[in-house]
């Protein structure tokens, strides 16, 4: 397999061969902001139709999906702690399609669903790659196929995925690993303002420090700032129930009861 790149970051083409005989190719196109806009080539697994073939109900978390509705009906997503889809449940509660993974994301699918959202909730493009926004990841090679765009002197291996620890970290942006148990509360808690602050702070902290713990610190700080700006009663609190943050109801004023007699 051969890769083509633009500025060593974006994969623009894949060429497959065996015994020096070319089997086919895949090509990709991007807009000015680096977002993938088209996929083609002789081995393209999917030809994009002119009409919508499936609808997704998504959550506030990055790559969080609740249901998928297509011609076969509505299926509910079952996900593990990493956000990987482990099953699609039909209307009667049965597993229509199941997914099992090796540690670095190689998947075995048991079922017929065309759902592409699999390892860590990212889209399997059918060519053995997952698009993690900033760059592509290969579960076969267990690494990114292009270099970290934030390469610094501290970057020991610019192709490493999630610190080579995919059981404990995810990398939804392709820029820095994040411990899977923390983004929900630290980055996405506290309403819209907390969500925006957490995402901005996490990205900034990770890029500036080149360290997942810098990303967590930035997310936590900016999440609290975002909540405070909006006067959110849950500012700075994790797993907050706003009803619990309200001041207690004052006790009734002391005074005579109806049964008391007055001279």
Helices and strands in order, then pairings?
Blueprint: E1 2-6, E2 10-18, E3 21-30, E4 36-40, E5 55-58, E6 65-70, E7 73-79, E8 85-89, E9 95-101, E10 107-110, E11 130-131, E12 136-138, E13 143-144, E14 169-170, E15 178-179, H1 183-187, H2 191-209, H3 212-229, H4 242-245
Antiparallel strand pairs: 1-2, 2-3, 3-4, 5-6, 6-7, 7-8, 8-9, 9-10, 11-12, 12-13, 14-15
Helix pairs in contact: 2-3
Q: Structural class, from helix and strand content?
A: alpha+beta
H/E element sequence:
EEEEEEEEEEEEEEEHHHH
Rg, rounded, reads 24 Å
Mean pLDDT: 75
Span between N and C termini?
101 Å
Taking the sheet with the most strands, its summary is: 6 strands, antiparallel
Q: Roughly how much helix do the residues carry, as a percent range?
A: 10-25%
Describe this structure in words.
There is one protein chain. By secondary structure, the chain is α+β, with helices and mostly antiparallel strands. The protein has helices at 183-187, 191-209, 212-229, 242-245; strands at 2-6, 10-18, 21-30, 36-40, 55-58, 65-70, 73-79, 85-89, 95-101, 107-110, 130-131, 136-138, 143-144, 169-170, 178-179. It contains four helices and 15 strands. The protein has a six-stranded antiparallel β-sheet, with no helix packed on it. A four-stranded antiparallel β-sheet has the order 1-2-3-4, with no helix packed on it. A three-stranded antiparallel β-sheet has the order 11-12-13, with no helix packed on it. Residues 235-239 and 241-246 have low confidence and may be disordered.
